[in-house]
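Good morning C.,

I know you're traveling, so I'll keep this short. The sequence:
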Amino acid sequence: MTSVASDVVVHRPTVRRKNSDHPPWMNPPSVPVRALKAVIIVLIILTMLYPIAYVIAMSFAVPEQARAGVVFPTRFSLDAYRAIFNGGTVTVGLRNSLWITVVGTVLSLAFSSMLAWGLSRTREVPGAKAVLIMVLATMFFSAGIIPNFLLIKSLGLLDSLWSLIIPGLISAFNMIIIRNFFMNLPRELMEAARIDGAGEWRIFLRIALPLSKPVLAVMGLFYAVAYWNTYFNALLYISDNTKWPIQVVLQQYVLAGVQIPGAMVTPDQPPPPGITLQMAVIVLATVPILVVYPFLQRYFTSGVLTGAIKG
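The tokens, ready to paste straight into the viewer:
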């Protein structure tokens, strides 16, 4: 009996699992789910594009259709842009914002990359960890509006465009991204350069910076957008309207409803309707950054991901 019982083999039915190598959320969605996602994405795109298309169309609308409240005009004119540039106020604001953006972005990239390079060499630079902690502390604590105003006043920077650059010269977040990118560079390359007699400045300028074009391009875009959109600090530190950036001009003539001085196509022609002037100012304040972004888009993903991940 024992030998017979030992020869009995129990066969259990095997349960097959579909796509057992992947969790359920990694399986391809069904056709109805994909169609629903496509509809939602299209609706979101239309929701975002509608106000942009409306603003651009109204900025070119002829006075008759603009006063009639036509949603999308059928006849277009450049009178609003001619009136704005004849007035000169918006032109001055664009020039101020362009100067702030270009100078501020160049200086911020230079100082942020130098600080990031020094803090990435924690073994070679004495006190680098202490400085890094102090930089990280600025991400959680700030002095406040009144101390910052008193500091700018004591430095003699009131009514100066430098007051919109120097306080935000180094962003702790952007600097950390650049530092992590530097730390991911191959150390063997740096050691080979030192063996060949290269110093720290030469390694930084000739090796580190050329290899860091993706992250520098992305951080440059971040800095440029921040400087171009400078608004609150300009309200605090600048009272001379000839030094206002375009965002303050936009607030004055669009939200506050102040008339743009001298905004006329010709002396004997009435000025364009206020709605077309306002929409034209919005277009002029938005387009420059939108034009820059496509040239840096190919660096965006690689720059952010490489700089944000360590190891």
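Safe travels,
E.
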